[in-house]
Design a protein that fits this description.
about 650 residues, alpha/beta, Alpha-Beta Plaits, elongated, disordered C terminus, binds iron/sulfur cluster
Amino acid sequence: MPVLSTIEAKCKDCYKCLRACPVKAIRFRAGDGTSDGSPLAGRALHAEVVEERCILDGACLRVCPQGAKRVRPDVGRVKGWLESGEKVVASVAPSFAAAFPEEPLKVVGAVRSLGFAAVEQTAVGAELVAEAVREECRAVSSGSCRRPVLPVITTACPVVVNLMEMVYPDTLRHASAVVSPMVAHGRALKRAHPGARVVFIGPCVAKKHEAEREEVTGAVDAVLTFVELWDWLADEGVSLAEAEPSDFDGYRPETAPLFPVEGGMLRTASLPSDLVSGEWLALSGMDDCREFLAALSGGGGLPEELRGVRLVEMLACRGGCVAGPVMPDDGSTPAVRRQRLLRFVETRRRGTGGGAGGGRVLPEPAGERVRGRPRLEPADLTRTYRDRRPELKMPTEKEVREILARVGKTKPEDELDCGVCGYPSCREKAIATYQGMAESDMCMPYMREMAESMSHLVVAASPYGMVVVNAGLDIIEANQAFRKMFGLGEEADLAGRRLSDIIDDTLFRKAFEERTVTETEVSYPERGLLTQQTIFHLGKRDAVVGIFIDLTPAARQREEFERLRDETVERAREVIAKQMSVAQEIAGLLGETSAETKVILTKLIDLMKKGEVGALDRPSGRRGRDADRERAGGGGSGAGAEALDGTKGGL
Ligand code: SF4
Ligand code: SF4
């Protein structure tokens, strides 16, 4: 897990971390599945700490208003070692006295109560380092040592080392070859407590990375921040206010506890009297450190006034480690913290306890607790550096221009260099875009312009009439459709005209007074216009908007439909009536013929019943032939023939 990362869900794309980041190590990229390259897609970007570029100064951690930056927690590992019975020794950074509002020795007691086998102070390592640097500087000045070169840069701060290695690697030849106090103390503790784990507790994010570096590996097993310690104590129910005061184990250094303030190393190395000579320089704060390194790195060299400097002490946090980025937030300012530390050092020097209220005399740590000064070989205090400058592809001028053009910057005056995106200039942001660190549309003026022009386009092209009025019911803006509805010329400037000159403004007045939304149909007979109106107040902008939908065509359509419907119904009625009369006539005729048929058939049935038509019972073929034969022979029943004839005649 990286030492520093972003909690994506918490990040709100405000670019504040990027603006604060001195080396622009934060990449903004679109969240999954939302990027379509369109500035109007509403995609979310997320800040991402790029490890290969990050110098771990924690500036982003300090400024993020959402608490979206996370420092890797290492308490779990340390607890695991303690629970499994391993011997674990704590090395507490000298800034501890500045970090907590309680009496410093209560903090030592509280740390001890967590189960550490020994609680020692990193200031022991600081004293060793200060002496080694003094010797190194002497050797360099006398010419007996050719590396580093003057001015020698010494620092206990891993952020400064990161800055030199990643941004100004050509200044590494000035870097003191002496390790930091944390590493020196870690090595000493490993020697004094064979097989023990060493845990450094301090105010710095970058120490977590330093402890894992190949060049110093094995000195420190884990790094906890003071915030982690604070939370751990709270989890264990240990109250600092009620903790039993306890002194550090091991050797007690004199001046090294001042290491965490600007100039503390020079003082520990007994160089302060030379400060007036201008040979020693103490710098703190990212800006001062960068300025010096940039001058040292650039072709122009140091300004005349700095040319006599032989030793430079640098700390990345302004004022020193007392202003570190991971101090418990008890509302104290760096100045207050510095005073706490100075008071502690002073009371220790006078032999009192070092409490915030002046302290009380503690009994001298007895027996084994003071073992005297740790012995370290000179080789144990040396280290090396690496050029870790990230490989960055640079765009050509043509490519820069193309990227700038994507956000409408085609002329020099379009480059506003406003810095809102987090980069100091439009050009630098274009280069970052080319290098995959930024998205081209991370440009606030461009996005605003796009949003405005799009909203204007949408309003202008809307088929609905729109008008905005101020509290005085004067028109602020009206679109083309509104002008057309109320017969206002295209050229006429409506801004400032009273709305009541054009339409009844009662509903607009009501919207101002009652802050309600009104939806109603209003007709303007003189214009042959029927409208659907939605009128509402704009809240903070104290304006009222009216949206007018022209219902006239729909109303006309409805009328036409109703006319057609009535006509159709009338025609249908007529047709039905006609049909009815024809049907009645047909029914009358059918009735008559049916009656006649009935009479004849009844007669026929009667005749058959009387047997006068027996011949009719025979098959019709024979009956025909017999009848023909009878007719031809003149024989047969004459009555039958007559009857048939009679029937026929009847039919
Ligand atoms: S400061 Fe950075 S991490 Fe925090 S919300 Fe803003 S963009 Fe996201
Ligand atoms: S820790 Fe510093 S260098 Fe790293 S991303 Fe944050 S501000 Fe940038």
